[in-house]
Amino acid sequence: MAAMLRVKIITPKEVAYDGTALAVTIPAEQGEMQVYQGHIPVLARVIKGIVRIESPGADPACFAVDEGFFRVTQDEVSLLIDTLHAVKTVGV
């Protein structure tokens, strides 16, 4: 099994997502960033866009996010977001 990341998305109201993933795609200020386990540490700004969380054996979880910040450590991604909305995805 591939190495997994722990992913947390936190808003002012709640922990909106807390789970594991193979990869996370984040709309960063510097451009879209895809993060895997073992990524170098990063602290950066999130811009409006879609966060995509890919887990094995499941359709990706997608969230429309407002601005915020994210932090990447070797095995965890934490996003602090003002607001977010789940986006329905369809398996292909």
Question: What is the arithmetic mean of pLDDT?
Answer: 92
CATH superfamily: F0F1 ATP synthase delta/epsilon subunit, N-terminal
Query: In percent, how much strand structure appears in the residues?
Result: over 45%
What CATH first level would be assigned? Mainly Beta
- How many domains make up the 3D coordinates? 1
- What share of the residues lie within helices? under 10%
Short description:
The protein has strands at residues 5-10, 15-21, 23-28, 31-36, 42-46, 49-54, 61-65, 68-72, 76-81, 84-87. The chain has 92 residues and is mainly β.
What structural keywords apply?
92 residues, mainly beta, 10 strands
What does this structure look like?
This protein is an all-beta fold. It has a single domain, classed as ATP Synthase, domain 1 (Sandwich). 0% of the residues lie in helices and 61% in strands. The chain is built from no helices and ten strands. The chain has strands spanning 5-10, 15-21, 23-28, 31-36, 42-46, 49-54, 61-65, 68-72, 76-81, 84-87. The strands form two sheets. It has a five-stranded mixed β-sheet, with no helix packed on it. Strand 3 and strand 4 form a beta hairpin. The chain is globular, with a radius of gyration of 12 Å.
SSE blueprint:
Elements: E1 5-10, E2 15-21, E3 23-28, E4 31-36, E5 42-46, E6 49-54, E7 61-65, E8 68-72, E9 76-81, E10 84-87
